[in-house]
Fold these 3 entries.
Entry 1:
Amino acid sequence: MKVTSAEFTTSATNPSQYPEGLIPEIAFAGKSNVGKSSLINTLINRKRLARTSAAPGKTRLINFFKINNQLFFVDLPGYGFAKVPLSVKKSWGPMVEKYLKERQNLRLVIVILDIRRDPSKEDFSLVHWLDYYGVNFLFVLTKTDKLSKNQIKTRLQKISKYFSEAGYDEIVLFSARTAYGKEEVWKKIAEAANIP
Ligand code: GTP
Ligand code: MG
């Protein structure tokens, strides 16, 4: 996919603030600090359009980025970050759930996992939840640059096993550092959003 334009459009906490219109949306979900914003930046060839940070909990609102005037990337706040104040935590879940459950424009959720870690309780509940509500999703295992080829193979097998038992088997390997897997992720996005 050739990206000719990518711009931040808006931040939202509730549906009245979502962009108007029927442009398809691709959302990026996963644990805090896993690399959601970095994945977005890599896909659109920009260093920091989506704000990234070594400290978890950077993204706290639902951020919409318009790509080529034909797609929105939706950067979701990460879950599982212990240091966020309870008041913020309590509003987070409902904010993200409402978006995922009710947003008509949503075509695909990219569920991002760190290839070095086993999926957490929260990862599993997200996936079961998406499945329950019939939301289309794809796994991306990121930070593959931190492992050797052999380690990647072992980790991929292990993580696939967790999810294949539940019937989920589409997994893409990725690295924001080397852009490995970028074209494959774009291919899945284009399919889901029905972009030629
Ligand atoms: P929150 O918004 O806090 O939920 O985090 P996030 O999921 O958006 O993560 P973010 O993209 O901010 O990345 C977190 C940290 O991981 C940053 O220091 C990134 O540079 C690093 N990182 C992200 N992806 C990769 C990757 O593929 N490889 C390596 N080596 N580091 C990565
Ligand atoms: Mg982020």
Entry 2:
Amino acid sequence: MRILLFGPPGVGKGTQAQLLAEKYNLLRLSTGDLLREEVSLSSPTGRKVEQYLKKGHLVPDDIIFEIVDSILIENKDQDILFDGFPRNLNQARDLEKGLAQLGQSIDIAFQMHLDDNEIIRRLVNRWYCPKCGRIYNYITDPPVIDGICDADKHKLSKRSDDTEDVIRKRLKIYEAETRPLIGYYKSLGIYHEVNARGSQEEVLNKISNIVDDYLNIKCRSN
Ligand code: AMP
């Protein structure tokens, strides 16, 4: 199974991706996480992409393909959840081609949506654990001890692109570059929209219902 999750920044993709990956035993492929890892390692790719991330701009497609292609090939027998990738039509088409070469395709594409004011409120209050990746929100889901991860007691960090200015820029880029994916996945007949308001569990249930329906239909047709 290959599932794809896209939506504006701050809509809760990362959190839902973590929960879904665990629930359905999927490999989570987050291009955002992979890029941040390159930056923190100060690798040649990390040095190339750092400024794009800081400014909230999309990283050039060739760098994204370089990172993603090898993961797809290495994990060709694994069910995958694409988190925040593709980000534009060019990436979507290339992903489709890459998967077709492996005899695969995307089964379900989810767009999570939320209004801009709620997105900004969520993102300026977002912190994360650089060690285990757990995401916290100081309004809806704060850590037990201020600034410390509940799970591994590591110090929490703030993403450099979670400032109001950069968030507004990322929202504009989403509208221009990523929103067109809606029409693309509708035309493939695999598009689903999920309202991201509500608790993590409520949103997870909405997505899971659609995944379960898909799995039931697949099971009956086999
Ligand atoms: P995310 O963690 O998904 O919010 O991504 C954080 C940042 O990484 C984005 O604002 C972009 O600068 C970059 N990025 C992540 N995924 C992609 C992608 N598929 N294509 C281009 N840039 C990306």
Entry 3:
Amino acid sequence: MIDSPRGSGHELLDESLQGAPIVVPSQPTHTRKLYLESYGCQMNFSDSEIVVSILDAAGFATTRDETEADLILLNTCAIRENAEQRVRGRLRQFKSAKAERPHLVVGVLGCMAERLKESLLEQEKLVDLVVGPDAYRDLPNLVEQVNGGQKAVNVLLSREETYAEISPVRLDTNGVTAFISIMRGCDNMCSFCVVPFTRGRERSRDPGSIVREAHELFEAGYREVTLLGQNVDSYKWNLDIKGQVKDPDQPVVRFAELMELVAQVNPELRIRFSTSHPKDMTDDVLHVMAKYENLCKYVHLPVQSGNTEVLKRMNRGYTREWYLDRMAAIRRIMPECAISTDVMTGFCGETEEEHADTLSLMESVRYEMAYMFKYSERPRTLAERKFENDIPEEVKSRRLKEIMDLQRIHGTARTLAQKGRVYRVLIEGTSKKRDDQYFGRNTFNNVVVFPKGDAQTGTYVNVQTHECTAATLIGEMTEAKADA
Ligand code: SAH
Ligand code: SF4
Ligand code: F3S
């Protein structure tokens, strides 16, 4: 659907996808219409597929046209202040719609709902419904409550909810790639981050249901799945928090074993995952990646900062040296593996020297791709309570620009270095720019564009690349053997 590198992490999706309405075919029995917009990370987009599944069962058909909706839901993100501002702006736009159509119900879901709870009802007078990420099963009841004339709120977080057995309704799908949520919540408490407050405690989903979902997707023609979690390296099944086996008659499944189980679903099913955490990424995960060709050679490993003192203030649980050791491990175990990251500038107390350490770390790693942000203070976080948000806006902006400029050089150089090779490419769809061309990805997550010939979407082809732009390889199909 897009020709730009797709985020494979917890990082934000391509801007063009943000807020895009989603639609599934309506059924005649479905008399009420739902209009749903999603913001934020892949987890949120994946949750929207659960929400549609639950509301579908309650008789809602989805629509792309907000003017014909009976129920408007925004699945929101709270990661940075500007993410919330966008949602507030959008809610104001629904004001006139509500004046014209008094029966219209407007609801806020997701991380902003969880962060602001009941106060959203007072702050944004036009909101009728506030539902946190662990309460979506309650949506049909809550909507009825609103229809009965009351406002409705459910922001209870759960220690168990994983929506394991709910079949997501695949939204805006190309029929080739899909997300599988493998865990929820986060126990890490990075000092800048709102996610532990909005998503609650970490819990892993039953591996049997994950493997079943991967099988079903493969049978339905999908050829790539992305396993999603805030910190996939701490996935665990049948182990308690202290690492003790819960049920000796059941197998213990950690992330490395889970990857192996999903890799064995079918060699023609590609697997990606997101997001890894540098403090938890172990060599056994890397060895499993190296062992199976269908586990894509791509790791998104957010660094945030290249300075150990800043990392300490961020409560990230690793040092610059540890992070560089993980980079070395990836390169040792998989000589060819693309690496991307998230970087944050202007965190509390960040000096020019500390900022320079981030630039030097980027210089030594030379990331394929990076998501780069200015630090935004979030209420209730450790950083808000303990540190001063003391880096002036213009300094944050200047540092961000330096980081982006450097990344642009590295990204372009990496794409250029990939040119000229033959890749096994999974065709995802028609190129956004040219109707007679397909786009797909190689194992390294590079976008590859080439003339369609008689190939079909959802199949693998070998593509000889001969040109490139900053982030896209251009080529043509070949009978030659693929290099990667
Ligand atoms: N679970 C993932 C990422 C979570 S949020 C991890 O631990 O890496 C995605 C990215 O948003 C983070 O990696 C970070 O770079 C950025 N981010 C999170 N909180 C932020 C804040 N308060 N201000 C600016 N960027 C933030
Ligand atoms: Fe936030 Fe840290 Fe958890 Fe990522 S690992 S979601 S940055 S608390
Ligand atoms: Fe994702 Fe935003 Fe929530 S990044 S977990 S939707 S705060």
